[in-house]
Design goal:
By secondary structure, this protein is an alpha/beta fold. 40% of the residues lie in helices and 20% in strands. The chain has helices spanning 2-23, 87-104, 122-132, 164-182, 196-199, 216-222, 225-242; strands spanning 45-50, 57-62, 70-74, 108-111, 136-143, 153-157, 186-191, 205-212. Strands 4-1-5-8-6-7 form a 6-stranded mixed sheet, sandwiched between helices. Strand 2 (57-62) and strand 3 form a beta hairpin. It starts with a helix and ends with a helix.
C-alpha cells in the first residue's frame, strides 16, 4: 500500500511540475530521451578501390586523359614472399574491413569490387568513382621490391593536375595516422603522374601502399587479421583528420 501511494505521489508531482513549466512558457524537452549524437562521417562519401584482381587483363588503355601512353588494363599484382598470399586477396580483405569501419561512422562507402573474380580496368575504376561523386578515393595496394628489407607504408599521389593538391593533402593526413596505428616505417609520400587510376580520377585520390609483401616479416603481418585491423584503424583516423571530424 505504501509503495502504491509513493508511485501515485511521484506521478502527481511530475504532472504538476510539467503543468507549471508549460504555464510559464518554459521548455520542458528535458523530459525527453537524449538524442543520439550524429555520426562523425555523416554526409561523407568515400570510394575504396582494392587494387588488382584474380586475372590480369593485358589489353592496353591510356594512362591519362588525352595521353598516347598506354598501360596494361589490370594486373594481378605481387604476392607474399613467405605467405604465398596474392596481393589482390589482401587488398580486398582490408577494403572490406575499411568499408565496415567507415559505415559504422555514418560514412557512405562505395567499392570498385567486392570479389576477386572481376575484370575492371584501372581507368574504369576511376570513372566509376567519378560518376558516384565520392569525396575521396583510397586505392589499396601492397608493395614489392627486389630488396627484401624494404618495408613501410607509403602514399602515391599525383604531382600535377587539378586533384594534385587535395590528394597530397589527404595523403599527408593518412600517412602519419597509419604509421601511428601500425608502428610501420614511414616510407613517404611519392608524387607521380604515371598511375592510371590516379590520373583518371576527378576527385582526391590516394594510392595507399600498405606494406611490402617482398619483406618476409611485413608480408606475414599484412596477411594477419590483427594487423589488417590496425591498418584500417590508421586509415579511419587519417580520414577523420582530413575531413576535420
Amino acid at each position: 500500500m505504501k509503495r502504491i501511494t509513493y508511485v501515485f505521489l511521484l506521478a502527481l508531482l511530475l504532472i504538476i511540475t510539467m503543468d507549471t513549466a508549460l504555464a510559464q512558457g518554459q521548455d520542458w524537452h528535458w523530459f525527453s530521451m537524449p538524442t543520439v549524437p550524429p555520426h562523425r562521417l555523416s554526409g561523407i562519401k568515400v570510394g575504396i578501390d582494392p587494387g588488382h584482381q584474380a586475372h590480369q587483363n593485358s589489353q592496353k588503355e591510356a594512362v591519362a586523359p588525352g595521353s598516347s601512353e598506354t598501360k596494361m588494363k589490370a594486373s594481378s599484382g605481387t604476392e607474399g614472399v613467405r605467405s604465398g598470399v596474392e596481393e589482390y586477396v589482401v587488398n580486398l580483405q582490408v577494403g572490406l574491413k575499411l568499408r565496415s569501419a567507415l559505415e559504422e561512422l555514418g560514412c557512405e562507402v562505395y567499392m570498385t569490387r567486392t570479389t576477386n573474380d572481376v575484370d575492371i580496368s584501372n581507368q574504369e575504376r576511376a570513372k566509376m568513382m567519378n560518376a558516384l561523386g565520392v569525396d575521396l578515393v583510397l586505392r589499396l595496394h601492397c608493395d614489392g621490391a627486389d630488396n627484401s628489407k624494404a618495408n613501410g607504408v607509403a602514399m602515391y599521389v599525383n604531382e600535377t593536375g587539378p586533384i594534385a593538391y587535395s590528394s597530397q593533402s589527404a595523403a599527408a593526413a593518412l600517412l602519419p595516422a597509419m604509421v601511428a596505428a601500425t608502428g610501420a616505417r614511414d616510407a613517404g609520400i611519392h608524387l607521380s603522374d604515371s598511375y592510371t587510376g590516379n590520373n583518371w580520377s576527378e576527385v582526391p585520390c590516394v594510392m595507399v601502399e600498405m606494406g611490402f609483401m617482398s619483406n618476409p616479416e611485413e608480408d606475414m603481418r599484412l596477411v594477419s587479421d590483427g594487423y589488417q585491423d590496425l591498418l584500417v584503424r590508421g586509415m579511419v583516423n587519417g580520414i577523420l583528420d582530413w575531413f576535420g571530424r
